[in-house]
Amino acid sequence: MLSCSASRSRRAIAPTSRWRSRALGLVGLALFVSAIGTVAAANDPPAYWIDTSRLDKTPPLEFATERAIVFKDGYALLVNRAQGRTDAHGRLISEQVPDEAILGSVWVDVVAEEGTEPIGLESLTARRETIDETKPETHVCRSMSELLRANLEREVTLSTDRGDLVGTLVEVIGSESDEPYVDPLSSASPLLSSTRRSIDASHVVVLSQGRKTVLAIGEIRRLHAPELEVRLTTEAKTRRDAKQWVLQFDRANADVEVRLIYFRSGIRWIPTYRVTLGDDPSTAEVALQAELLNEAESLEQAAIDLVVGVPNFRFRETPSPLVLEAAMRMTLQQAAPMLMNNLMSNSSQALFTQRSGEFRRDESAAASTDVPEIPSELAGVGAQDLYVIPLDPMTLGLGERAAVPLGRSIVPCRHVYTWDLQVVRDGSVSAPTGGADDSPLQLSVNRVWHQLELTNVTDAPWTTGAALLLDGQQPLAQELLGYTSPGATVRIPVTVAVDLRGDYEEVETDRKLDAMIWNGDRYARIDKVGTLSLRNAKRTNVAVEITVSIPGSVDSAGADGKVAIGDFRSDAWSGYAGSPGLNRHSTVRWAFELAPDETFTTELRSHFFVRQ
Which of 88-92, 159-163, 373-377 has the lowest mean pLDDT? Predict the structure, then answer.
């Protein structure tokens, strides 16, 4: 079994049975984290000990993202590749440990060339290391002392109250010390300390006419030179806490290519549509583009696959131990408590509101506060088959957004005018009030909607997305285009039709008291007849669909209305106090074509029971 450990010092890794791995013919190697804390007592450590003092000398392994498989819910599967050469002990180190990965999604495979003996990966060790680095640091001179140091070996003129001294700057005399400073180009790992070499200078040595003169820096009033350097380069030392992966292979001094995959949050794609109507009312142009948001890590010329549908990842909220996420949060809390507390306090705004507190590999992420809140209907929820839309390789930096056209097509379009009536009854009205016109009828909606019915004649499904509707260049509306499989149809509401006016009225035709006794309660039966009319004031024929949702049982519907009777619905009643078992719920539908200036009129008869 492969084993991995996470620690700061020397660690033991159980020997890997390589013949067993080859016999099983594994394509990928599963990485399981085990806590191995045994310290060998022998003077000579066994062969499988890792000497961490020598690990820092191994060649670094630099990963580059070659593919990103992006889902709508803000998660992505990243595929990285790296090439390196193992050291004399068959090891490689990489500090490019992912900032985030979910449990069970981190896999490392060795890419073998055809016809060559494959190199085996024996183990991967995740650890945190304190790294000391020394590098030159250049800054603008802040004092006369630093200006003199920056111009050593140059011929200058020093002006004092006693006159000018012309000569070559030889040396600056003073005590050296290390002063703390903030490195604006520091690496992603948390800095534990950062210092640069400073000299508290008091005098300067000047070579003038073959004689050296020591001059107090406090006496210098001006500095002249034909070429004056105003920037000083000093030695800077940094100490940082870094995450590292140590990859142990079964071959030393060998060229190795590895592929790393992991699943993480932070990259999302949002489909947006543009539906354009033209001169032909029976067709429409549907254009699709993808809006990409990257809040994870920079992608450099990486192939991107957009996935329609959402995968089922049970442990997406559980970080992988191999990325040492909890360990890095603890380090941040110790090194920069104010920064970490600020990150935690703003967790509701972090990374698509799904994860908070992760450390970012680029400081630009901290300044990226324009992450939009995605509406739930566009977040990719719901079960759908996965369909992949491949894109050409592109560069998308951390915090960047992009819009990528995915194509356009001419599809069949049908204009449909729908009228949905939702009748709400008052269940407390049980006896005559003396007026024949008194009615408990309430209509929640009485509007006719113009809708576009589009047929997906492409080979790919339309995923749920925002749709901008245009008539030429005239905007009509923006609505939601729902998921549509190839060959299926979808309707998009456009606007309320002002040229189609409908009316619905009900009158009571009969009332029978004590019509039923149920559980000791007396109920009255009320019979109604409803009259429905719809007039077309347009100059063209229109396709109309009318749906009436009404409490009670419909006994008959004119004009070949299709009646469907279902169970009681409490939302169709106001103040209902009776038994729900006495009243059903009915839905009546009509579909027809209405000519210009024509009026459709029909009746439906229904009855219901109310408690007396």
Answer: 373-377
* Assigned domain for 452 exists: yes
Range of the domain at 545: 411-611
6 pLDDT above the threshold of 60:
no
In degrees and rounded to multiples of 5, residue 10 shows phi and psi of -65, 145
Q: How far apart are CA 368 and CA 366, in angstroms?
A: 6
Residue at a domain's end among 215, 240, 265: 240
Q: Give the residue among 584, 576, 524 at the shortest CA–CA distance from 553.
A: 584
Q: How many of the other CB atoms lie within 10 Å of CB of 537?
A: 13
Query: How many of the other CB atoms lie within 10 Å of CB of 193?
Result: 13
Residue 453 counted as domain residue: yes
Amino acid 311: pLDDT: 78
State the burial class of residue 379 (Cβ atoms within 10 Å of its Cβ: 0-12, 13-18, 19+): middle
The domain spanning residue 174 has which CATH number?
Answer: 2.30.30
Query: Beta partners for 156?
Result: 167
Top-confidence residue, 36 or 91: 91
Residue 318 domain-assigned (yes or no): no
Asked if 40 and 49 count as a contact pair (C-beta separation under 8 A), the reply is yes
> Cα(601)–Cα(612) distance, rounded to whole angstroms?
34
What gap in Å lies between CA 608 and CA 506, rounded to an integer? 13
Over its C-alpha atoms, the chain yields an Rg (Å, rounded) of 38
Which residues fall within 8 angstroms of residue 425, CB to CB, at 6 or more apart? 440, 441, 442, 551, 552, 572, 573, 574, 576, 608
Of 240, 268, 297, the one marking the end of a domain is: 240
Amino acid at 121: L
**In this structure, is the dihedral angle defined by the CA atoms of residues 317, 320, 324 and 326, taken in order, positive or negative?**
positive
Look at residue 577 and tell me if it is in a domain.
yes
Residue 538 has pLDDT above 70, yes or no: yes
